Amino acid sequence: MTTQDTSSQVTEDTLFATRYAVRDAADRDRAPSPALSRAARELQLRSGELELAVQLGLVGTASDARGGPPRIPRHEIDRLRAAEGFPDALRERVRAVGTREGAELLSITSHRFTCLARTGHFIPVRFYLNRYRAVVWMYLTCELRDFAQDHADLLTGRTPPAVRAALDSGEDRRPRNWRGRKLGMLLRATSDPWSRAAAIAAVLDPVTVAEVVPDPYERSRLRVLRPDLLPGGRPESPAGRELVDRLLLADHPDEILWHRMSLAESLHEARRLSPAPRPAQAAGPGASRQTARGPATRLLSRRTPRALRTPRPPHGRRALLDRLRRRKPDPAD
Predict the structure, then answer these.
(1) H-helix or E-strand containing 97?
(2) pTM for the complete prediction?
(3) What pLDDT, on a 0 to 100 scale, did the predictor assign at position 326?
């Protein structure tokens, strides 16, 4: 075989391998994305860990074409499984611990850990209520380790005066920090301006939302798009639900003001791109006039006095009795 024949054969082999590599990649992209439960098994994560990984942006998702919950693309699963240290490295990035384990991780007392958390040095990533209806805050271990490296002076010695003053005033920034973190996750997950406005409105009470959004049709659209801040559901007991609802809503004046301004800005952008739908726009000009007259006409008809209403013709047994009464007597009788 000549050198030219050898070169030609190598070129053909290269084109053949490239063609099949491109086709295999396309087949992987067209492969159906597994559901979250199956993706969790393939990534060797619990469902809560996978949910947290998605919220933190560690695992990418794709919207379901049929309108179902988001799915994990096949190429994303392959990327994570091929990463160095899988699955331990991925598990460690989503590992969350409570106060006792966090204190042990930082080699400090639980009291000192709680003081640092209340003053905003640790940002919770989630929370839940235990059987005593006490709030249990959870923190990422990777963030705690980074804090220990950057702020070793806060882990030993006397408590700094600023931290002590915040504790004496009764400040507890854990709920506020969690809300800010949760809202940031929701805003990063979507680029739709109405969905972003709905996420901001989710941390404000209905009265405040009505003040910022006076249009009822816009408030209705925000309610439809409102995300669930606790996908796991609310506690069954009324006391537990009341406690959780208080943690979900902004309660500090500065926090409320910030979210009000953010909601107004997001709403302005949403109105500019796609105004909220209204019944008149959906039904058309002719139907809108009929719709506008319909409720008033029905209301007037309900309020019309009985004496002024047009009497209905009798029917059935009542009509038969009326005809018998009006019949003239027979002369033969």
Answers:
(1) strand 96-97
(2) 0.72
(3) 63
